[in-house]
Design brief:
This protein has 286 residues and is of the alpha+beta class. 24% of the residues lie in helices and 20% in strands. The chain has two domains: 4-136, MutM-like, N-terminal (N-terminal domain of MutM-like DNA repair proteins, Alpha-Beta Barrel); 150-274, Helicase, Ruva Protein, domain 3. The protein contains six helices and ten strands, in the order H-E-H-E-E-E-E-E-E-E-H-H-H-H-E-E. A four-stranded antiparallel beta sheet has the order 1-6-7-5. Strands 2-3-4-8 form a four-stranded antiparallel beta sheet, with helices on one face. Bound molecules: zinc ion (ZN).
């Protein structure tokens, strides 16, 4: 799954190439790509037609395009392999093209949703008063959101009987932090993933939040260089901005801080990468 920085790069690309354009028509080439739109493909296409797209928004890993004057938004589910491409009309159709959106202007480009494995898709939803698609109203603000409340996050950590990596991946507490950037931030903060959050002091919580923001901004800085071209893209795992990774995927390699071989442990059907010296396991594991 793409993580927040990857999705933000796509959002910026869409803001540049798709915002404020009016939909001429939408063509659904594979019904699975709109299966989350319960009323079906024809209804989906009908509701887009003639409406202007507002400024694309994001919360955590969720990305949506507001449809002006409708009170609705198009929510993009990128899944494992979903891509949003802005392509010239003349470009040949991609093999796995699922949805095409044409615009009523002369810019010569169209928006394409391409998805090899069809886990992703697009769907229309009513907006909440905050302008969020209603199906993601329960998702917490992400740490790059100017309105994210650091103190409330710290207090929530103190109240919860959980461990720190679980808390970082809890979308009702903080959104947009996935497995990769959680490992990166924990390595920078020298915290083991199994630490109990109830013991966290305010400085420890705030320092960790700072590292979460740093790893995401570093990834954005790397990925942000590629969206200048006429191409908006999210790949699967291979598309990650992996140049900046210090922990994730580095099993057996020396810790970049102390040289100790990094370890990998199974964790909730995934993996956790950590330095056994810099990130000491808590004495009583939960
Ligand atoms: Zn180390």
């Amino acid at each position: 799954m793409p993580e927040l920085p990857e999705v933000e790069v796509v959002r910026r690309g869409l803001e540049r190439w798709v915002a404020h354009r009016t939909v001429a028509d939408a063509e659904v080439l594979h019904p699975r790509a709109v299966r989350r739109h319960i009323a079906g493909a024809d209804d989906f296409a009908h509701r887009l037609k003639g409406h202007r797209i507002g400024v694309p928004s994001r919360r955590g890993k969720y990305l949506w395009l507001p449809l002006e004057d409708t009170g609705q938004s198009i929510l993009a589910h990128l899944g494992m392999s979903g891509q949003l491409l802005v392509q010239p009309h003349t470009a040949p159709d991609e093999k796995h093209l699922r949805i095409r959106v044409r615009f009523a202007d002369t810019l010569g480009t169209e928006l394409r949703f391409v998805d090899q494995r069809t886990f992703g898709g697009l769907s229309l939803h009513d907006n909440t008063p905050d302008g969020l698609p209603d199906v993601i109203a329960h998702i917490a603000r992400d740490p790059l959101d100017a309105l994210f409340d650091d103190e409330a996050f710290h207090q929530a950590l103190r109240r919860k009987r959980t461990t720190i990596k679980r808390a970082l991946l809890d979308q009702s507490l903080i959104s947009g932090v996935g497995n990769i950037y959680a490992d990166e931030a924990l390595w920078r903060a020298r915290l083991h993933y199994d630490r109990l959050t109830a013991t966290f002091t305010r400085p420890r919580s705030l320092e960790l939040l700072g590292h979460v923001r740093d790893v995401m901004n570093a990834a954005l800085a790397v990925g942000g260089t590629s969206f200048d071209s006429l191409y908006v893209n999210v790949n699967g795992e291979s598309g990650y901005f992996d140049r900046s990774l210090d922990a994730y995927g580095r099993e057996g390699l020396p810790c970049k801080r102390c040289g100790t071989p990094m370890r990998r442990r199974p964790w909730m059907n995934r993996s956790s990468y950590f330095c056994p010296k810099c990130q000491r396991a808590p004495r009583v594991s939960s």
